[in-house]
Queue: 4 jobs
Job 1
Amino acid sequence: EPLPVSNVSIYDYKPSPETGVLFEIQYPEKYNVFTRVNISYWEGKDYRTMLYKDFFKGKTVFNHWLPGICYSNITFQLVSEATFNKSTLVEYSGVQHEPKQHRTVPYPPRNISVQIVPINRNNWEEHSGNFAEESFIGPQEIMRKEKASHPSEGPTEIPAANTSAAWLDEHSNSTEYETSSQPSWWSSETELSEGEEEFVDAVSRDYEASDANTSGRPTAEPPPFLPVQMVLTWLPPKPPTAFDGFHINIEREENSTEFLTVSEDTHKFVAELKEPGKYKLSVTTFSSSGSCEVRGSQSAKTLSFYISPTGEWIEELTEKPQHVTVTVLSSTTALTSWTASHESSGNSTIVSVLSLTCQKQKESQRLEKHYCTEVNSSSSLIENLVPGAQYQVVVYLRKGPLVGPPSDPVTFSIVPTGIKDLTLFPLGPTAVVLSWNRPFLGVFRKYVVEMFYFNPSTMTSEWTTYYEIAATVSLTASVRIANLLPAWYYNFRVTMVTWGDPELSCCDSSTISFITAPVAPKITSVEYYNHLLYVTWTYGGDGPDLSHSRMLHWMVVAEGKQKIKKSVTRNVMTAVLNLPPGDIYNLSVTACTERGSNTSMPQLVKLEPAPPKSLFAVNKTQTSVTLLWVEEGVADFFEVYCQQAGSSQETKAQEPVTVSSHVVTISSLTPATSYNCSVTTFSHNSPSIPTFITVSTMVTEMNPNVVVISVLAILSILLIGLLLVTLVVLRRKHLQMAR
């Protein structure tokens, strides 16, 4: 025998509470084996039992019960079945849980309709004599009647809070009804078949007169409101539905409600409405027979109508506006349009506007507050809109105080105005700061910062989102963008994105372009050979690809007493400079782009001075020698030193001569003496290799006057000798001719 069910819960099956229930049972699960569940219950007066096996985790749905029936004494038994020797063994568990009961929801009445019939007081008084003498009065009325002094066979007077009420059902042989406290603006009656007894529950005319005099109205009143007759009809709910009557709910001006109950045979309700106003009616079915709790049906339809002070009946508006469209005229205004049938063309309208954006923002961050709550207007022009917000518009037809059903909601969005004053501040080769302002009037969800550049890893150029900033009330915002590629072209864009679905953004024109600065090169080696300086450097790591970079060229600068520049193409990272020797140079390499540059750390290069070249002795005397040479490179001064050739180290040496020009005369030398002279270049206190030359002074010369006389004597002798030779030659030629 299986262990019994310990607890049972029964719920309405929400998709169909009229015919369906949800069973939930609890039982010991460990060491408890069963195959099916036996469900027993009373369906009204009929006993039912069935075996059920479709329980999943202790739950199952029944969807074949009858609506409005009281199901009582519901029990569950676990059933264990086994087959042995071609026979089936069955064991039932006991019943230890409390038996349950449940009433299904009855179906609502059908074809509910209302009619308003104008009547006059005379005709109504003639007709009012045919009221029923028997009726069932609701609990509140019964209690009030019990407190009366003593019953009477005539019409019964009730307190001022209650008004006369009488109902007549012309479709049945008996009428049952219940009423709660009734206001002074209506009275009702039900019609019975001929021959039925009548019951009248009416307020005396004396009370009506006194009530009118004490109402606080001025003496000069408008013409009195002529009562109208309300005829409410319906059909019973669809079979099979067990029900015991109907509830009638009458509401006037949304502040006075009357609740009445009539029997199941009543399908018509007639009442006199004594005051104008807006009325709402609903009829529901209830089921009360049996031990289960009383349950009512859902309201199938609510009827609304309006009785004007002149007695005009305005029926409920059932048509809703069609093809509602909203045309945005500007960033703050929009125009609503719709279509309606010809019968409803004369009705007025209500345009209801609600901001969907406002509901999604925190109250402290709301930038738009006018339509945070639903705003109704009779104009089709919607004003005071905020750029970037999303709104929902619903249109109602209106006739008098009655409002028809809402149209299908239409959602529209206002495009945001976008940012302004986008500014870029560079922070180095790999970072920038973007700053911008937004308009004062506008609502949005976030800023989206995007950048466009060539991605060397994917070899593509596209817009990519870098950062998203939540909206704030601040009119200024900024963002730091890092990890940029140096010497690279970037295009930045900041858009405002709305809360709407789908999202709207603005504007793609809010862009700014920028070329990042290059990183500083790094000088790796400097060599000086044959009067040439060889410089090598690196840039941004090993072997960078500069094919897509905005690097233009390198500028190599050596700055000493002279400033020497050399431009090198970007694909080469070495340079050869022809620098004058003997100077100290501040060497640097600059990476250059279209809009910026970056220079390497400077490096000092000191070049040794070069020795003088082309050293000549341009003049010499017995005691002096003039030397001339060609200066090469940069020199601060020259040191000239002469020493007699072949002299020993012990011989007193002549002091060196320091000059700043490239010509010098060495005096105080010994005549007819050979000297070894050297010239050394000095620059920045560093000497060069000396340049040597050997020179000799001249021999001692005679007196000049003696020399002149000696020369003249020799020349005279030579001239006399020449004349003698000439005479001898002429003599011989004369003799030859004479012969």
Job 2
Amino acid sequence: MADTLEFNEIYQEVKGSMNDGRLRLSRQGVIFKNSKTGKVDNIQASELAEGVWRRVALGHGLKLLTKNGHVYKYDGFRESEFDKLSEFFRAHYRLELAEKDLCVKGWNWGTVRFGGQLLSFDIGEQPVFEIPLSNVSQCTTGKNEVTLEFHQNDDAEVSLMEVRFYVPPTQEDGVDPVEAFAQNVLSKADVIQATGDAICIFRELQCLTPRGRYDIRIYPTFLHLHGKTFDYKIPYTTVLRLFLLPHKDQRQMFFVISLDPPIKQGQTRYHFLILLFSKDEDISLTLNMNEEEVEKRFEGRLTKNMSGSLYEMVSRVMKALVNRKITVPGNFQGHSGAQCITCSYKASSGLLYPLERGFIYVHKPPVHIRFDEISFVNFARGTTTTRSFDFEIETKQGTQYTFSSIEREEYGKLFDFVNAKKLNIKNRGLKEGMKQSYDEYADSDEDQHDAYLERMKEEGKIREENANDSSDGSGEETDESFNPGEEDDDVAEEFDSNASASSSSGDGDSDRDEKKPAKKAKIVKERKPRKKQPESKKGKDPNAPKRPMSAYMLWLNANREKIKSDHPGISITDLSKKAGELWKAMSKEKKEEWDRKAEDARRDYEKAMKEYSVGSRAEGARGERSKKKKKKQEKQMKGKAEKKGATSKSSSSTKSPAKNTSETFKSKEFVSSDESSSGESKKEDSDEEAAASPARSSEDSASGSD
């Protein structure tokens, strides 16, 4: 049995929203990676207490309960995957995957059960619905009634904001069922209550997003920003990442807190909290806790009394409370030695930081892009000047980010960084004269093999060749079909040549006449290839040898049925992804076998192409000879037809003088100008003259006698 199971397009239910991602089950535990935020949930196998399989709106779902009361829900499974999951749970986690369907009777009267961080409303033994108590933002009580309010979900078009439960009174003395219900909810709910004293307070910190100066009060479970106009309460559970970034001037520091879900002010959402510090500003900090509590809670990460730079104290306290690592810039250094690049994004100037696993831009608006969500990057020429260039990033979801006005000197450093991280580059840019070929990048990316890379390269070359051919053809047609200046010159040339033939023209006219035939000759030269071009654009010969397949495609064709049998019901897309993963994990020795087969196929193709080209040339020569022979036959047939017509015309002309000699007399000039178009009619003219001579002599004698 396999040691791991992987599922794509699985949805995790978090705070009322369904986040898609990838789920991986291994012997060590369960790992889910969110595609949107990149956040990873890791559940150790020893922590799993129960697994439930049930039918949900998105097919079938898996609910996991841990020993400490946490609940994880994953939807998007197929019904056929139950047996595989059940066997995996039994073998590696020693758990029976229970099947429990939801109750769909539609009753609104039942029993409420609290289990860990989950409120379950049941009818009999079947649950109707479940509410994660971490979604509850407020709990209020009334007479025989409890009202639960929920956090607003920005990703959903419609959000559930409130649920009311009617709790009937009981006869037991000293126990209020309404208060007991509310206490069970509040003990697990994500309710922000500023009770007690803050652990520490930072006064008048400069905040760029949201803009202003705020007092930051650190509580055990949340962060309180208190400003002159607005207050924000940020639970530590919403903090996704922490960044500490040096400013380009080396005198200031950015401390960036990534939030999911974001804090809200009206219709504005702030996904990042950005604080700006001066490196010279120091502080002495005393925590509002005794030393034993500090040691017990923070385990040496914090002490009761601390002193140092203000940005160091804030970042150290936040790291200890949030329990997240702080991300700092890696080994990247720009042209000026700074760890960032000055650029513009959406008409605002800021700083772009290349990190070890992504890019972050500060500060307006802040943007964080992870490498694993990048489809490709592109280096583009600046729109206004050649002294700068644009850096474009497109994600797999189709979102495009353009960072413009980057100094030309930063190009080499940024290109080397992108190339070292093995990101796909749409164009090769202008490194060292801005001449980098696609093949060089493909060689550098061999370690991280892409399943489609070899096939895509061949198809891309064909598309580029066709595009170049079509663009060249269209360019010639455009130059010749629309050039009003040259058309006017052609018209003027005809009139000028006529004028010079009839009358003497000036020097300017003669100069113009000498220049214009050169233009005309140039046009003729350009049109000649265009007439022959359709011959070169014939369709592919079906008898031509087919291109050889790459090593990957040969392997895929040989193993496609095996992959289908190992993964029944797999889709075409998932099959391609799985094949790519198997090929990538294959050893070098096994790949060499398929490389040899691909090399043999290539040699056979080259040999077949040579034979095909020789045969096509011979066939072309035979076709040319047959064309000439056919043309010669047509010419002979045409000559015979003309000769036959000429003899019939001569016979009719010899008979006509006997009937009416006065009407049929033709002078030599008339005959030569009218009927001597062909060389064969000269003989007919001499015959006509001989026949007309007696008539001329008789007429002359008659006129003499008169």
Job 3
Amino acid sequence: VMASMAHLQEEKLRLQEELLGLQEKLAARESDELSRSLQLQGQVETLKAKLLEQAQEISRLHSELGGTDVEKHRDLLVAENERLRQEMKACEGELRELRRQQQAPCRDCAHLQENARLQERLSQLQQEAEEMRTKLVELDLEVQQKTNRLAEVELRLKDSLAERAEEEERLSRRLRDSQETIASLKSQPQQIKYIIKTVEVESAKAKQALCESQSRNQYLQEQVGMQRQVLKEMEQQLQSSQKTAAQLRAQIMMYEAELERAHGQMLEEMQAMEEEKNHAIEEAFSRAQVEMKAVHENLAGVRTNLLTLQPALRTLTHDYNSLKRQVRDFPLLLQETLRNARAEIGQAIEDVHSTNRELLRKYRRELQLRKKCHNELVRLKGNIRVFGRVRPITKEDGEGPEAANVVTFDADDDAVLHLLHKGKQVSFELDKVFPPQASQEEVFQEVQALVTSCIDGYNVCIFAYGQTGAGKTYTMEGTAANPGINQRALQLLFSEVRGKAADWDYAISVSAAEIYNEALRDLLGKEPQEKLEIKLCPDGSGQLYVPGLTEFSVRSVEDINKVFEFGHVNRATECTNLNEHSSRSHALLIITVRGIDRSTGLRTTGKLNLVDLAGSERVGRSGAEGSRLREAQHINKSLSALGDVIYALRSRQGHVPFRNSKLTYLLQDSLSGDSKTLMMVQVSPAEKNTSETLCSLKFAERVRSVELGPISRKAELASWPSQEQLEGDSPGTTAPSGRGHASPSPGQLSSRATSIRRKLQTSG
């Protein structure tokens, strides 16, 4: 097997060398033939190009030259034709020489693919032969190991047999000696008894040794049987190895036959490629002859055209000169045209810009008009206006994916915001949306129109809604350096009162209350823990008031600050996991503005309710326990009652459950159609608060669709009161803030007051 493998390896190396030599020759011939073919094709293409150039030159001469230059160009063309004939003869000689060379196959031949396939097959055969050789070496090594083991077993068996034979011979000799001794002793009975006993003892020892020898002989026979069985197994393995070697030899012979067949096919294919190369050379030579004949014919046609075009060339000289002058003047004309085009394009761009500016101005004007009309429609329908404010991301929100911003805004519409919830974008449309960077001043500018309308005798309610930690208290109260809606509203009211001081006398009073655990408490009273009740006004107007609620008269900003500080100290706030200063109650700031016109005696009473609702919270997240848990339960219950009221108003139900909660009962005047109502919904942009933000925005959309009906003004004509009476109505008293019912005296009213009363009656 090793000799055949070595022979097969030598044959494979020889075939590889021959194949490499054939490949090198084939590549050399192919490159040579390719270069020559490309050279010949290039020369033919050059001749064609030159002929084409000659034809173009003739046409150019036909259009440019005159009769005086015809003879010169004719001589040049004759010389060029002669040179072309020489080049054609050289090409013909190269073609003949190429025909004699039969060295390389044509390019792009199918035999190259077959050659590559055969090479791949040869590499596969080589790889398989290498694998078989590896297996054969492994089998030889295994046979050698088993042979060595068999030799060792045979040596041990021989040693055991020799030792056994020696032991048997020794025992037989001793047994024979013992038997002879016994026989001799039996034949001599006269010896002394002692000797007989000694012989008997020696005979017993011999028997014991004989038993031991027999047991050892049996053990050795067992060992011999085992060794024979191992030897039999070794012989079987040797036979299987010999069979495997025979199979490998058969495969090697098959591979050798396959290699010989591939070698023969390669020789046949190379011979066929030689024949095809010769055929391709003949075809190329015949094509070249045909092309040369066509070139000769084209040259003859060129000569004929030269003779016929001479008269026409003279007639075209004048045209050529005129065209030359036009070409000389063309740059000036082009520059002038470009200047005019640039001027026209610049003017068109300026017109487009001006048109765009005008359209943008009209669009903004229409947008403002649309908002104005929408606000007027909302006012006429009595809808609750809803503003949204998004607080910025703070350090309390943490870091990572839970603190990511999920709220985006519409660049073209400041009333739309988008919330990313569970991978989907949900859009909400409110009346106005304030981004996180909006200031307190910007927020108040949108609500100051409502605030000032209470001076004219309208009831106004502004309440902040949202989850805990969303910024409701900041929007309503603010800080000392940056106050919120409450303090700015009173400052605006004082400013408006000072502006109308020439014609009107006003008195402003302030009350503050909170709803803590469904109990109404006075924040400005001497005993804030005392529970108050909500009752109907006894004058039959149907409005509500709180008996015992402290009402302070304020005349300056300093009075406002004192009232706010006193009320803020008494309000219930605690720390939770969601908010360090969480409001644990609903706070209400009630501002009553009473005014009288000196000239007509018209009396107006307006009320401004500023409500800071406690935030809704999830008990599991806020970590509320004990009293905090009870507070959270009451807060969520009152906000749920507010949702039930909004649902009943939205669906126009006959019964609205205002009395289900102290909060909804106290806001009955603001939600029953006799007040201008604005809800400021506060939301958090953090991803971890997405569920609460979604609930708040959905509630805001439901509130926005509620129609409360047209608003009525609280004004009446009365006799002229004294300044002491006007001031005595409000400071320090606890009277209900309902409508007055004083009837005017006909003798004290002027004709102007009578007309104003008629207008009020018709508009009421």
Job 4
Amino acid sequence: DDDTFSDVFCEKSKKLINVHLFALAAQYYTLSNLGVSTPLEALLEALRGDNQRTTGIKTDEFMNNKKSHEVQVMSELVDNIAKYCGIKQVIDIGSGKGYLSSFLSMQYNLKVYGIDSSDTTTNGARERNRKLKKHWRAYQSRARANIETQRLEKGNNRPVQSEMNCKAINEELLNRTSSLQHQDQVTIQDVVPACSFTETATSETSKQTVVDLAAQKQSDESKLSEEVLAILNVLPADAVEVFSSSQSNCGELSQEEKEQRKIASLQAKASKSSESNLYFPLTSCITAETELSDIITDLEDCIMVGLHTCGDLAANTLRIFTAKPEIKAVCSVGCCYHLLSEQFENQEDCPEEVWGFPMCQYLKDRGWCCGRNARMSACLALERVAVGQMLPTESLFYRAVLQVIIEDIYGVTKSDRHVGKTFSKSSSFIDYVRKSLKKLELDDSKVPDSCIMDYYEKYKHRMNELEAFNMLKVVLAPCIEVLILLDRLCYLKEQDNIAWSGLVKLFDPVKSPRCYAVIALKKQSSF
């Protein structure tokens, strides 16, 4: 209760006097402790109903560990939401390089439009698709060779008795299967299951063997697909060319078998046609007023997703979802809270402006403001620090001293320019300051090396103080993130057309610190 935490700060000075209570209070106001989030497994179970979980393919060959983890988990959830809503179209906002988009299209056969504001990123995604498609046949050949080797090894290791039994196959069966053997370039012992026949083989046995042959062939093709997908795991769908089975000699097949093969062929062609262009990278800047139908000409009932949508884009994703009847569900994981625009931060009177925070009416009525420093803190990763991935104290110290130099020497307190990752490219503090001043377009000749080092020596003894301060910010980070996420959830709860909405922890926070998704489904009347 409030009394428990009343002694965290001094009543008069407002200074922190009890670090232990501060940490306990911060822990109390985290999402995991407040009990307002929905477990991922519980949501998946509700969406699946009686359907079994599908086995996915690995995603770690063309993505780093973090991205692989995110794409694997989120794509499974999105697929289950799409199935629950009975939709096949997905709009991926802020799609970037298209990792999530391509995996959704390939693994789950969903039609995905990936929208990103950067032409460079979109073109990069297209180029990546082109290169992967160029190497597709090589991967395909290698996978076929691997399957063939496995077949031969398996055949060579069979017991002698199996070979003796295979000799008992009647001539009719040999004729019936000869074309298949020729087309696939395999031996009899590779396509005929061992011990399937005896010396007294009957026509019933022969019929059963044809079924076994078909099953074996299907199994081989399935293994081939799995082998290739294991290599190409995140290959976008428009880079995938469906394997075309060789046309076999149908003269010796029954009419029923001919019809079955004809139907299978038509289905394969239809599948190839529908799957050949399932991922479409597009370039567009998305705002709350964006008309999706202007960007996507064949817009239909769909689900909108966003994996680490930056700043206001996460808020605008939710606004578009609530406003557009075609969008039946949303799954949004935001990031970059420091880039959010705030309605009450600068006390500007802009009632018509669309802000990133706050979204819900409850906080708007109270004029709630976080401020940039708090939002910067919300981006920190407590779980990573807890497992030993410490903050970059030295680079933070460099940045802090640089700011003092700029204010003292140049009188600059604000700038639209950024220092960026200068620290990693600098050999010393002097080198860091000079490179940073050039990036900020400030005349570095005003500051001699001796002056730069004087500032460094003046504040060096406060580095531990800076580290302690940043650790307090890390402890507080989840509380500020809770405020931002609950604001978005409350916004959805205020809408009349939402059937269900919730916060779901999707990712391992050590691998992916921004791990909570805002998820919502519209009412059935909206479907």
